[in-house]
Amino acid sequence: MFRIACASLFAALIVLPAAPAAAAGYPEKPIRLLIPFPPGGGTDILARGLQDKLEAALGTSIIIDNRGGAGGTLGVTLAARAAPDGYTLLFTSASYTFAPGLYKDLAYDAIKDFKPITNFAQAPLILNVHPSMPVLSVRELLALARKRPGEIHYASAGVGSNIHMTTELFKYMAKINLLQVPYKGGGPAQIGLISGEVQVLITSIMGAMPHMRSGRMRGLAVTTKQRSPVLPDLPTIDESGVPGYDKAGWYGLFAPAKVPESIITHVYQAMATVLKNSDTVKRLAVEGAVAVGNPPGFYYFTHHPSIVIPNGGPDDLLAAMRAFGAGWAVLDSNYPVGLKELYVAPDSDSRLRLRATFTDAAGQPVYLFEIEP
């Protein structure tokens, strides 16, 4: 069984004061919404779906700027370097939390260089295969992969992307060997599967459904432990031969760290208005997503695994993110792990446990992350 020995989906609750008036006149010009992936993937589709309503709520134009590459880290770097005036915001996915454990020399600090505005939505992903694959179920895919270890290729949206780590988790729990082919984003990864360059792709429901309907992709299962209301006849990976598998994707809005709190609050309130709109809720449901809308004080990591932050300060968050990313990194041995305190050791019951640790203010080790095979 694969499990994480921490149980909170949310971290670092900060009680915000009553919202002050937004910075005088904000916004006075269009806002750039930077998406660190190319067009066509789940992050891009969701952002474009909320664009018109967010424009109405903020009273200005939203310019979507796709900057894909390096698992989303190139676009995030651009957002980190943007002027902290509220006119460049980052809309990204769970890849944001994986990168610190997979890239040793990031040009940004995922905690200190950003303020989270809100977790916009979460959604299951879909395990797809190319229609030429002689499999109609997850069990048949597992059987084929075990007969042909290392011969079947899967597409990712780049190293450290949500697609990459979600597939690595699937490989780990299913005990199969698939080879990664990294693309610059979810959209190009879908093209890779449709063209037959790769045979397997775990991607967003919103990105996959049009191609499933046209027969260019074959959906086998969803990644969450519950079936999707959008595709009720599609089984879960958990019920299809990989018990315990449960992984959703999330999408969130961030701002450069020095953006004034008044602007953060103003943008959050606009997003909250968008998320309460019945048309938005319906549109998200059609795409297989669920609105979340946590206030800026909540920092959302991912559906599974999850992390508890003991004290809630910025240093704790940074350490937790590094532990989080490092723990996922060990699922794919091709990439370095940047956490020195990461180790694997047997417990008294002879089961191997992977732990990532950091030291608290009193010098005591705090276990943030644990995997039990």
Pairing-aware structural class of the strands and helices?
Answer: alpha/beta
Beta-strand portion reads 15-25%
Please summarize the sheet with the most strands.
10 strands, mixed
CATH architecture of the largest domain: 3-Layer(aba) Sandwich
CATH superfamily of the largest domain: Bordetella uptake gene, domain 1
CATH class of the largest domain equals Alpha Beta
Give the domain tally: 2
Low-confidence stretches: 1-21, 298-321, 329-373
Radius of gyration: 20 Å
Which fold name fills CATH's third level, the topology of the largest domain?
D-Maltodextrin-Binding Protein, domain 2
What can you tell me about this protein's structure?
This protein is an alpha/beta fold and 373 residues long. The chain folds into 2 domains: 10-121 and 249-304, D-Maltodextrin-Binding Protein, domain 2 (3-Layer(aba) Sandwich); 124-240, D-Maltodextrin-Binding Protein, domain 2. It has 10 helices and 15 strands. It has helices at 42-58, 73-81, 95-102, 138-147, 162-174, 186-195, 205-214, 261-276, 278-286, 314-329; strands spanning 10-11, 31-35, 62-66, 88-93, 114-129, 153-156, 179-182, 200-204, 218-222, 248-256, 290-291, 299-300, 343-346, 352-359, 365-371. Helix 1 links the parallel strand 2 (31-35) and strand 3 (62-66). The longest helix has 17 residues, at 42-58. It is globular and about 65 Å long. Mean pLDDT is 77; it is low at 1-21, 298-321 and 329-373.
